[in-house]
Design brief:
four-stranded antiparallel beta sheet; 4 helices; three-stranded antiparallel beta sheet; alpha+beta; 172 residues
């Protein structure tokens, strides 16, 4: 009992990116539109008690875009990689350095298919509360509705196959 691979498999214990404190360059540029690649930011982390834990200098870098203009990036203080969002608890670093995952990466195949089906249902009827394909809304082209209905059917098949696969494995 308790050998290699036993226990709760399939659920990572790594923290999620959505649960971490974050510094997003896009929202920072709304407050400070004059930021350029020559700037550097001094970021201080503090514990829950208010005492200063770490101070980090984050540099900004810009890259050229294909049709003109420049894109601004943070340089991760740990790996020196470019990123748009820095995460922090007791240290400031990018998502790769913290080994963070997104909540959507935990979804099973059937869960992803179910969410995609519900997204189509919400597009056709914003007031829908169940996951059944509603009739064509007034004003929508038939070819658009048929394309969405075909996509809905494909996701429904994916969902059914994943559920059947799940129960087939469970019967061993």
């Amino acid at each position: 009992m308790g050998g290699h691979g036993s226990g709760r498999w399939g659920v990572s214990r790594r923290p999620l990116a959505e649960s971490m404190r974050r510094i997003d360059l896009a929202t920072l540029r709304l407050d400070e539109p004059a930021l350029t690649s020559g700037h550097r930011l001094q970021i201080e982390c503090s514990s829950n008690g208010g005492e200063r834990v770490q101070a980090t200098t984050v540099y900004l870098e810009s890259t050229r875009m294909y049709f003109g203009g420049r894109r601004l990036w943070f340089r991760c203080p740990r790996c020196e990689g470019r990123c748009r969002v820095l995460y922090g608890t007791w240290r400031i670093a990018c998502r790769r350095c913290h080994r963070l995952r997104y909540l959507s990466q935990r979804e099973t195949r059937s869960g992803r298919a179910n969410l995609a089906m519900f997204k189509i249902v919400k597009r056709l009827d914003p007031d829908a509360t169940f996951n059944e394909l509603p009739p064509k809304p007034k004003g929508m082209h038939w070819c658009t509705y048929e394309r969405l209905a075909d996509r809905y059917d494909a996701y429904d098949t994916m969902w059914a196959m994943a559920i059947m696969r799940h129960f087939r494995i469970g019967r061993r």
